[in-house]
Design a protein that fits this description.
Layout: E1 12-14, E2 19-23, E3 29-33, E4 41-45, E5 52-56, H1 60-71, E6 85-86, H2 98-107, E7 114-120, H3 130-142, E8 146-151, E9 154-156, H4 160-168, E10 182-184, E11 194-197, H5 203-217, E12 223-226, H6 244-247, H7 251-266, E13 280-283, H8 290-293, E14 297-298, H9 312-324, E15 330-331, E16 333-334, E17 338-339, H10 345-356, E18 362-363, E19 368-369, H11 382-397, H12 399-412, E20 417-418, H13 429-432, E21 438-440, E22 444-446, E23 456-461, E24 466-469, E25 475-477, E26 482-484, E27 490-492, E28 495-500, E29 508-511, E30 514-518, E31 543-549, E32 556-559, E33 564-569, E34 573-578, E35 583-588, E36 598-599, H14 609-614, E37 619-623, E38 628-634, E39 640-642, E40 644-645
Parallel strand pairs: 6-7, 7-8, 8-12, 12-13, 14-15, 16-18, 17-19, 31-35
Antiparallel strand pairs: 1-2, 2-5, 3-4, 9-11, 10-11, 20-21, 21-22, 22-29, 23-28, 24-27, 24-29, 25-26, 30-31, 32-33, 33-34, 34-39, 35-38, 36-40, 37-38
C-alpha cells in the first residue's frame, strides 16, 4: 500500500545468509536493515520488553519452514479456489444480470470457478432480499461457479437492529469512557456514516459475528471477502483489558480466527485433516499468524496504473513479500481498484497475465474513480476477451500442478509464488535481486511484464538449472483453448536472456528435468455443476495430462498430490505410477526438437496429435509443427513405456 504502509505487517525478516529474525510481539516495531550500508540491523519495539527469535535454518527455505511451523500454516484450500475468479455483476457491464453474464462465459468457453458478488452483509445488510439471493446463488452454483459475499467487522449505526443488539451487549470496542467507539466508515464514499467495531477479545462478540456469517451461507454463498481489520486506533479499549496500541496488530488475526473456526465447525473438509472446508474467506489485513488462520488473501486496493509503489508492479512485490512472511495463497485485484484514468487494454492484459500465475487469479471490475470516470473492462474488445480466455484456460489447466504445490505449502510453508531466495539457487546473488520475476511452484519461472509499452523482456535464468523458453514455443489453439508444448534450445542457468513479449505473451520458462501435471482444456470449472454445458473437474477425473521437459540427459520427473508420478529416464523409458489408474496424455518437449525423433515401440502410431487425444486406446504421434512427442497411455494396465530414437520421428 505504498512505500511506507502495508495492510499486513509481519515482523519477520528472512536473510540471504539463510537465517531469519522474528519479533514476537503485537506492538508496533521499527526496522532499519542496513540503511547506512555498514552491515547493521536496528530493531525497535514500542514496549518495555523485546522477544526476538533468531532462526538459523542454514537455508532460507528451511528457515521459513521453521517460522511457519511456529506461527501456523495455511490449510490446503478447496480445489475451486485455484480456478479463475470473476465479478459477474460487472464482468461485461453493470446492466446485465450477473447470472446472464456468467452464462455468457459458458457460451464463450471461458473457465470460471468463483464469482465475487460483493453483496454486503456488513456494515449494512437490512435491505437484502433473501429469496432473490438464494435463487441467484443456486443458479451460479449450477454453472459450477462458487458465489462469494462480503463481510467486514463493522456495523452501521443505521442498521438499527444489529447495531443496538451489539451495543446493548457490549460487543463493540469502547472508548476510554466506556461508550462504543464510533468512527466514519472509510468505504462510504460521499455519504459518510458512523460504524462501531466488533471486539473479538469478547467471546460473545465472536459468537454473535459467527451467527451473522451464517446468514450468508444459509443463502448459498460459499464464502466472502473478509475486508478491513486494520483500523484499530491506539486509544481504543478492548474487553480483555488491552488498548489499541497493543491490539492493533493482533486484531485482524482474532477477526480471521472467527471465520476460520466457523467454517471448520460448519463443514469439515471431505479430504480430512490439513484441508480447508469447501468455503473461501479472503483477507487483506493481517499480522503474524494470519497465514495459519486463512487460506486466501489479496494485496489490498491497488491503483489502476503502472506505478511501482501502488500499481501493477507493486502487487508482484507484495505477493512475494507475503509468501516470505508465511502467507502462501495470495493474489491481487486484476485491473486495480482506484483510478484517475480507467485502465487501458494493455494494463488489463498485463494484469490478467500476472493474475494467471499468482496464488489467486481474481478479477476486479469495480472500485473507486477519483474523477468520476467509469472503469473499463478487459472484455470491451474482442482482443481483450481472446487474451483473457487464453490465460483463464492456462490457469485452470495448471490445477494439478498448483494443488500439488499447495500441499507443499501445508507441509513446509512454501508459498505458491516463490521468491528466488527460497530455491536451491538462493546463493545466486543476481537471482535473489530480482523483484518482478519468481517461481510459480517448483518448475515454472514467471517474468511478467509490468511496464507500459514494453514488448521485450529481459529474464535472468538462475544458476543450478537449465531452462526451456516455454512461452515463446507454446502454441495456443483457439478452437479448444489448448496449449501445445514446443521444443526449444536448452538454456543454461546463470545468464540473462531477452525474449519477445508482445501483448498476448507472458514470459514463462520451465526448469529442465521437470514434468508438470495439467488438465484438459475442456475443464471449465473446478466445482461440481448441474448445467450440462459445463465440463467439470470430476467429469474428466479419469484423465491426466503432463508437460515433460527433459534435461540434458533426457531425464525428467514430476508427481501429483493424489499419487501420480512420472519419470523419464535417459530418454529410453517413461516410468508411470498412478494410484487412481487414470489415462494419461503426455507431451514431451526436447532441446532442438529432439523429442520429435522419439518413437514408441509396441504402441500404435496415429497420424496426428489430435488423434492421440481422440483415441480410446494407447497411441502416439509426433507434432511436426511443435517438434514434440505425444503419447497416450493407460496407467491401469502399464507402469512403463519404452522409447526408441529415429531420424524423422516416423518410425514405428
Amino acid at each position: 500500500k505504498g512505500k511506507e504502509t502495508t495492510y499486513m505487517p509481519v515482523p519477520f525478516v528472512l536473510s540471504s545468509e539463510g537465517h531469519g529474525i522474528w519479533l514476537n510481539t503485537t506492538r508496533r516495531t521499527n526496522w532499519d536493515l542496513d540503511s547506512e550500508g555498514d552491515g547493521r540491523y536496528s530493531l525497535e519495539v514500542e514496549g518495555r520488553e523485546i522477544d526476538m527469535v533468531v532462526i538459523n535454518g542454514k537455508a532460507p527455505a528451511r528457515t521459513l519452514e521453521v517460522f511457519t511451523g511456529m506461527v501456523g500454516r495455511a490449510l490446503i484450500p478447496p480445489e475451486f479456489q485455484f480456478g479463475p475468479w470473476n465479478n459477474f455483476f460487472n464482468e461485461f457491464d453493470r446492466d446485465t444480470p450477473a447470472e446472464q453474464q456468467a452464462s455468457k462465459f459458458v457460451e464463450l468457453d471461458i473457465p470460471s470457478s468463483v464469482t465475487d458478488y460483493a453483496i454486503h452483509f456488513l456494515p449494512g445488510g437490512k435491505d437484502l432480499d433473501p429469496k432473490r439471493l438464494s435463487s441467484a446463488t443456486a443458479e451460479m452454483r449450477s454453472m459450477g461457479i462458487a458465489p462469494l459475499a462480503y463481510f467486514n467487522s463493522m456495523i452501521d449505526e443505521r442498521y438499527e437492529s444489529m447495531y443496538q443488539h451489539a451495543k446493548e451487549r457490549g460487543l463493540f470496542v469502547k472508548s476510554r469512557w466506556g461508550t462504543p467507539w464510533k468512527f466514519y466508515y472509510k468505504g462510504a464514499g460521499y455519504k459518510p456514516f458512523e460504524v462501531g467495531l466488533l471486539d473479538f477479545t469478547n467471546p460473545e462478540s465472536r459468537t454473535f459475528f459467527a451467527s451473522l456469517l451464517d446468514n450468508s451461507t444459509e443463502l448459498g454463498f460459499k464464502g466472502f471477502m473478509y475486508d478491513y481489520g486494520e483500523y484499530v486506533d491506539p486509544g481504543m479499549r478492548f474487553h480483555d483489558g488491552t488498548k489499541g496500541d497493543e491490539t492493533h496488530n493482533a486484531y485482524p488475526v482474532a477477526y480471521q480466527s472467527v471465520a476460520y473456526d466457523y467454517f471448520r465447525s460448519l463443514s469439515p473438509s471431505p479430504r480430512g485433516e490439513g484441508y480447508a472446508p469447501p468455503y473461501i474467506f479472503y483477507a487483506r489485513a493481517g499480522y503474524t499468524g494470519t497465514g495459519g488462520r486463512t487460506w486466501a488473501a489479496w494485496t489490498g486496493d491497488p491503483t489502476s496504473d503502472w506505478d511501482k509503489s501502488t500499481g501493477l508492479g507493486a502487487q508482484v512485490k507484495a505477493m512475494l513479500s507475503a509468501g516470505l512472511s508465511g502467507v502462501p495463497f495470495i493474489g491481487s485485484d486484476i485491473g486495480g481498484f482506484v483510478w484517475v484514468e480507467p485502465p487501458t487494454l494493455e494494463l488489463w492484459v498485463r494484469w490478467v497475465q500476472v493474475g494467471s500465475v499468482s496464488g489467486i487469479m481474481r478479477m476486479q471490475t469495480g472500485g473507486t474513480s477519483l474523477l468520476g470516470k467509469e472503469k473499463t473492462h478487459v472484455h470491451d474488445s474482442p482482443l481483450g476477451t481472446f487474451i483473457y480466455r487464453r490465460y483463464a484456460k492456462l490457469r485452470t489447466s495448471l490445477f494439478p500442478y498448483l494443488y500439488t504445490a499447495a500441499h507443499a505449502a501445508r507441509a513446509k510453508g512454501t508459498p505458491l509464488v516463490r521468491h528466488h531466495i527460497l530455491e536451491a539457487w538462493w546463493r545466486d546473488e543476481v537471482a535473489i535481486e530480482q523483484e518482478y520475476q519468481y517461481m510459480l511452484g517448483p518448475s515454472l519461472l514467471c517474468a511478467p511484464v509490468v511496464n507500459r509499452g514494453q514488448s521485450k523482456q529481459s529474464v535472468y535464468l538462475p544458476r543450478g538449472a537449465a531452462w526451456y523458453d516455454l512461452m515463446s514455443h507454446l502454441r495456443y489453439d483457439r478452437q479448444d483453448g489448448r496449449h501445445r508444448l514446443g521444443s526449444s534450445e536448452l538454456l543454461r542457468g546463470g545468464q540473462w536472456v531477452t525474449v519477445e513479449a508482445p501483448l498476448e505473451s507472458l514470459p514463462l520458462f520451465a526448469k529442465s528435468g521437470s514434468a508438470v501435471p495439467t488438465l484438459s482444456p475442456e475443464v471449465a470449472t473446478l466445482n461440481e455443476a448441474l448445467d450440462p454445458r459445463v465440463v467439470t473437474l470430476s467429469d474428466l477425473g479419469h484423465l491426466l495430462h503432463w508437460w515433460v521437459f527433459p534435461d540434458g540427459d533426457s531425464c525428467a520427473e514430476g508427481s501429483t498430490w493424489d499419487g501420480a508420478g512420472l519419470t523419464l529416464y535417459n530418454g529410453t523409458t517413461i516410468f508411470l505410477h498412478d494410484d487412481r489408474k487414470r489415462s494419461w496424455v503426455i507431451q514431451v518437449a526436447g532441446p532442438a526438437g529432439d523429442s520429435s525423433r522419439w518413437f514408441v515401440p509396441g504402441v500404435p502410431r496415429v497420424s496426428s496429435w489430435r488423434e492421440v487425444l481422440e483415441s480410446p486406446s494407447p497411441s502416439w504421434s509426433s507434432d511436426p509443427a511443435q517438434r514434440t512427442l505425444w503419447l497416450k497411455v493407460d496407467t491401469g494396465s502399464v507402469d512403463r513405456v519404452d522409447l526408441g530414437r529415429g531420424g524423422s520421428g516416423l518410425e514405428e
